[in-house]
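seq as requested:
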Amino acid sequence: MKTIIEFCDTTIDIGNYLQQMTNFEHGAEDIFIGKVRKENQNRQVVGIEYEIFAPLAEKTLMDLCTKARQDIDSGLDFCIVHRSGYLEVGEVSVVIIATSKHRHEAFTACRFIIEEIKHQVPIWKQEHYTDGMSEWVKGHALCCHG
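struct tokens:
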């Protein structure tokens, strides 16, 4: 089992991490790429600043990977990379790669990790808006939009 967890303050090189996740025993590789979007809850965003308490965030992410292996598939491999610092609209903030023998487990694991990052991992995000205001955003479950 492979687990890569990293935090960085520069552009995430997705291709590099894809190469590191090569596992010829696995037939499925699910990739989640989170980006800074230009609008959130009817407010125009110019950027987001992420603060990470790295020691606890790393431990929490390791625990989440262990839980996913217990509940979903014991053979899962993971790569989780999260940016810190200020990011502009369009920049990649998080990359999650989950690989397994089959697609269902990879999809399920990737979804589980991103949802739990929002709830459990000590990563805080402050949105900055076009009106000059900023706001700390609370973690939340996936929003369903029609």
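The CA atoms of residues 65 and 78 lie 7 Å apart.
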